[in-house]
Specification:
Elements lengths: L1 H31 L3 H20 L9 H28 L2 H8 L2 H12 L6 H25 L5 H27 L2 H26 L11 H26 L4 H5 L5 H11 L7 H25 L1
Length: 302
Amino acid sequence: MAKERFTGHLLIFLSALIFGLNYPISKWLLANYLSPEFYMCARMAASCVLFWGLSLFLPKEKLSLKKIGIFFLCSVGGVTGNQLLFVHGLNMTSPMDASVITAARPILVLLLSALILRERVTRLKSAGVLVGTAGAIWLILQSATNSGNAASLAGNLCIFASGFVYALYFVFSKPLSEKYQATTMMKWMFLFAALQILPFYVPAMATASEPALTAPLNIAALAAMIFVFVGTSFLGYLLIPMAVRRIRPTSASMYNNLHPIIACVIAVVLGQDFLSFEKILAAAAILSGVFLVSRSNRATEN
């Protein structure tokens, strides 16, 4: 059991690392090279092909029409709705502001887990969520204040709505992730997501006044696209159900609070920001929150 929990935390950490890097990289692509419509179509198409291709080398799992219908509903919240709102929100606001709002996801998951899965909310778990979320918000607000970025209200609302529908998916996917392979879940969800998006976005790109590729691509842009379309959409999503199978949804969602730390490290390495006492303290609060929630779940399971 302890080994399984460790594996689950390691998998969700890697997923958080990938998604944390996705904020600045996706913003850079949207600002300089890609339209939101092309970005979405490329992500859905690439992920669908990759997951179905991977499934050819894995044991087949039989699904009833009812289960396929449930995967369709999960795709609406976990992929289509989440990504549409996220991409358009990120295109209107800054990665820092988006991270602030994303830090509220663990609270949404905690509340929905308590209401839907009847997961017990302990004082330790509540304290962990609050401390971790407060640390993430403080860290990003410090960076946002120093950089002087101004957020768009519409973009922020889109990011918040994205977090809510993703929290719903996170909770409802728990029983599915315990029964089915991650690849089985993802191949059906991204197939449905591609079918939901491509028929509308491809004609829209053909008639749009602005091109799908807003600037000529170079090696850096191609590398960033590979990271987003393969690393984020394929590997990042693949790791989530593998992790949720081993740990509770609330524990897994807490790793969203690592996104600000990842963004801060990148900024320091690139010379775009500096390390301060406030940021170190905020990072300690985030990691403490993850530890408290994990410790609460371990006490409940033992």
